[in-house]
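Section 5.1 Outputs to date
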Amino acid sequence: MSETQTPEATLLVVDDEPSIRELLSASLRFAGFIVLTAADGREALTQQANARFDLVVLDIMLPDMDGFEVLRRLRENEPELPVLFLTARDDVQDKVQGLTVGGDDYITKPFSLEEVVARIRAVLRRTQATETVDDSSILRYADLELNEDTYEVTRAGVSVELSPTEYKLLRYLLINAGRVVSKMQILDHVWDYDWEGEISIVESYISYLRRKIDSPDALGITDPAARANFVPLIYTKRGIGYVMREGK
């Protein structure tokens, strides 16, 4: 980051392994963040007392207290503080507990630095979106609107009826607009963590959603000019997942 570049955000990285802590902090600084570090829960709480940060990257396994307890204590002072959990185990129970206690996302070790940066930016976007639409609780992208209070969805001013699962899927794509999300990420965030069915369920619901929000016919758009200018919002990134964006 150059001296004149404005940092994206200030982060706190909490991990008891010096190599991981140093690698993460160096990589995140290179990506444009200000980074503070802590080796355990107590040091994390001390950092909170002395500085302000926008997001915490928090290891679950710490020597003095687990990450869930650290999160609870951090949130006593900052109830809305975003947290991205790190876990050394690809354990469904860890994921469930992490999100149940209020974590915003999780990364399983070993991880790619690119994924960590992408997840951090996604969480920050969601947090900032919540702050900017707090009064109306409306999420917007292009001509798509989702009202989190009334569960109403409109596209091009037309009301769209969605099932609860379709609504959750659309919301997840919307808060990650511009970012490719994998089928597994969608499965984890939209369906229950103990889902034992086929991952093809994601493909099916993406198809259902497209028929409702990406179809001029379904939206009742008959004007030739409007149809010609109509742009789908949900795209497939072959072999990776899906992305919400304006145009290919």
